[in-house]
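#random but structural
TW: two for the price of one
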Amino acid sequence: MSIPNTTAALEVPKANSRGRVIVASLIGTTIEFYDFYVYATAAVLVFPALFFPNADPTTQLLSSFAIFGVAFVARPLGSILFGHFGDKVGRKGTLVASLLTMGIATFLIGCLPTALVPGWVFWAPALLVVMRFTQGLALGGEWSGAALLATENAPAGKRAIWGTFPQMGAPIGFILANGVFLILSFTLTTAQFAAWGWRLPFLLSAVMVIIGLWVRLKLVETPAFQKVIDQGEVSKLPVSRVFKTSWRQLILGTFVMLATYVVFYLMTTFTLSYGTAPATLEAAKAKAAAAGKTMTQDAINSFVAGLGYTRNEFLIMLIVGVVFFGIFTLVSGPLAEKYGRRKMLLGVTAAIIVFGFTFVPLFGAGTVGVMALLIIGFTLMGLTFGPMGALLPELFPTNVRYTGSAVSYNLASVLGAAVAPFVAVALWQAAGGSTVLVGLYLSAMGVLTLIALLVMKETRDLEYVSNVS
């Protein structure tokens, strides 16, 4: 009669179930992107007037976008900070810390006084910069950790599919953030929204952060990083090691991600600015008068036409477009497994380059054309963004994977996302209201990504668990 080896049974390591991985990676990035998009939406809708009340409308918008870009400057620093701990201490604790950091910063934005309050003309924008910088630090570490949580727990041959779990947080977070703003705009007057209603989306983020923390605290370490610990291969200085051993992958990863960032922030932040800008000078004067202001001569001289949609109309159009973003993010996973990451992304990037030449004809074709542009743009966004959850981590050895994928992802955010809204507005202004230069800018960024993809090798079949640098 044999006796069961109960000791061995007790020593079987715990594992994260598929459901727990999905929820933990998805809810974290959903919260992070919700917080990020809440700011992006407010940066267009209310922050220009609330934090820069003494400037003309164009300067207000550019100033608001400049603070929007501060977070992208902070993101590479966040990738180094959280990447260090993610590769040295572990994925779980680092993910909890990044989520908590983002949640606190976002909640505090909802508590800030505005520049309209006497004595806060300087301090209100300055504190907004600090909070925005903190948001960037947090997001710099969040995405990479969530991607590793998904892909380092994925079964063989399923990494690209599981890698889409955290990617879905982007469209879901966008819909939640803008849905909240939409509900508030329907239920509050313009005066109420400007006075206090804009604060509610920031304050409500605290509820989701609590839920996200509860889910993530129940995780166990990923098998890949646990093996690094067991083998004594934990890197003492991950950032130094990744730049020494994987500098080529850092460069390739940054440029592979570049077009993804540019197309997304053009389709969201820029199109919202362009779509809701007055279509005529008379409409701009009427809008200023409705707000109790008179356009200055400088504002009149610098006026360029937009599409003239109301804020609510265009937000609804954006939300419809983002639904396609979500759908094709999920579709991209199986495609990247079947055809390989590189081959699939080469085709999608070529389509993005062509898409850049359609900005003028589609924007000039009325509501149908604008809606078509949003749907096509967000479809391409889903197809290019989805595989990144697997591709960027696959470029790096396990013991520097958190740092390497985070640095590449966030350097791309500086080159692509940080400047995209600012550059797009400047090009729109320079072209006298035409979007032709904006489209060419997108195509040019697509060419850089195409070159990076041509240089890199396929990563689908690379060993993923025990490789170290």
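TW: number two ↓
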Amino acid sequence: MKKQLITLVALVAIPALSFAQTADEIIDKNIAALGGTDKIASVKTLQYNQSMSIMGMEMTGKTTTVVGQSSRTDISAMGQQITQVVDGEKGWMINPMTGGSGAQPIPEDQIKMQKGNTFLIGADLSTARTQKYPVELVGKEKMNDKDVFNLKVTRPEGVANYYVDANTYQLLAMKATVSVQGQSGEVKQQYGNYKTIEGLTLPSTMELNSPAMPGSVTLTLSNVVFNPKIDPTIFAMPK
């Protein structure tokens, strides 16, 4: 009887153990949900339009990216044109709202954060794998009534926690503690409205909360184009 009981307990335990997932397995499924490793790797350049809403103010913009290397965003706000560029380890911006019309270098700590934007939006865990960032499975928890996996990723600019839907394996949210100009704060980002474009399923809306902003920012992406031809001179800082 005792031997039969031990066998029964073992049989019950095996399925439970088989459902336990590792960080690598979760990332595998997240990449599959996006469209697969080959599809992600095939995107070398990227362009998209964006509309932004912050504290009742509406803005529009266009972003041009060389994946993993350079990114330029041009934003129209209140009749002014704002430009922000990251190119390798350098960066610059033009922001008339700060009182200047010329290009100014971006501080090094901001370049580190902005460099993360040179990768495919919503493919952060794929990027973590290709860039060999350390990843740890924190556990499974609830977020907005959904079961999610919490993955801790150690990135060059700091540690970020990514929350993956346990059913769809799509990325739902991210939070990270960052330091900008000597001040530390928590950045939060939520991803939604996933759309499939040329075999890649990526988020088209994001809500961002950052200590560097006066309120939450809602971004909506449109007119996404993969692998457009890009003139590299657009990333050069004007003299």
